[in-house]
Amino acid sequence: METEQSRLDLIRGDITEAAVDAIVNAANSTLLGGGGVDGAIHRAGGPQILAECRKIGGCEIGDAVLTGGGNLPARYVIHTVGPIYRGGQNHEADLLASAYRRSLEVASDNRVATVAFPSISTGAYGYPIDQAAPIAIGTVRQYLSQHPEIVFVRFVLFSEADLAIYRNAANPV
Ligand code: ADP
Questions:
Q1: Which of 124, 131, 151, 173 is the least crowded, having the fewest Cβ atoms under 10 Å away?
Q2: Does residue 158 come out as left (phi exceeding 0), alpha (psi in the -120 to 50 range) or beta?
């Protein structure tokens, strides 16, 4: 039995290029597109993804929904909505953990075996990345330990600095 450790990896890169079953989008609750990773995914994936998002009609904070991947290498996009950080006393940690967990539940429900995540909520939504990274890693590890159908999860971090923070959260010194 593989450990959950060997089913989790961290790389620096552009998530739109990830060759996995599903990439996760840090969307907003309208699902109608935004900046950051959301804008990059819609640009690279083409209009089909936005058309599917319109039909779905929206997504609650902490929840996730699935669309096709359009022109992306990934077959699917799982759109999740992280919390906007408002000081840390407004259920941000629970909502961030829920965004990761619900994304993986949607993966399991749709026979998605390999998943790539960006760093949810740590861009425009302002979540301090040193606090977000251990929640991201811990929630994914816990899910992997209970769900062998997920073969691996990859975090695709956009900068070397973000990657270093996630590495430290995964392997604290
Ligand atoms: P949020 O609104 O949830 O904070 P953002 O898209 O603003 O989402 O930022 C989330 C993270 O995604 C940030 O760390 C940002 O640097 C990163 N990011 C932006 N574009 C990409 C991309 N193409 N691939 C991977 N990560 C990206």
A1: 173
A2: alpha
Cβ–Cβ < 8 Å for 22, 77? yes
Per-domain boundaries in the chain: 5-170
Q: At what angle do helices 160-170 and 129-146 cross, to 10 degrees?
A: 50
Which one of 3.30.360.10, 3.40.190.10, 3.40.50.720, 3.40.220.10 gives the CATH number of domain 5-170?
3.40.220.10
- The reported pTM is 0.97
Mutate which of 20, 119, 135, 166 for ligand 1? The one with the most ligand atoms within 8 Å of its CB, which is 119
Catalytic residue among 9, 14, 21, 38: 38
Evaluate the CA torsion angle 120, 154, 75, 65 in order and state its sign: negative
Rounded to an integer, what is the distance from CA 168 to the centroid of its chain? 19
Closest alpha carbon to 115 in 13, 18, 41 = 18
Burial 77-113 (b: 16+ CB within 10 A, else e): bbbbbbbebeeeeeebbebbbbbbbbbbbbbeeeebe
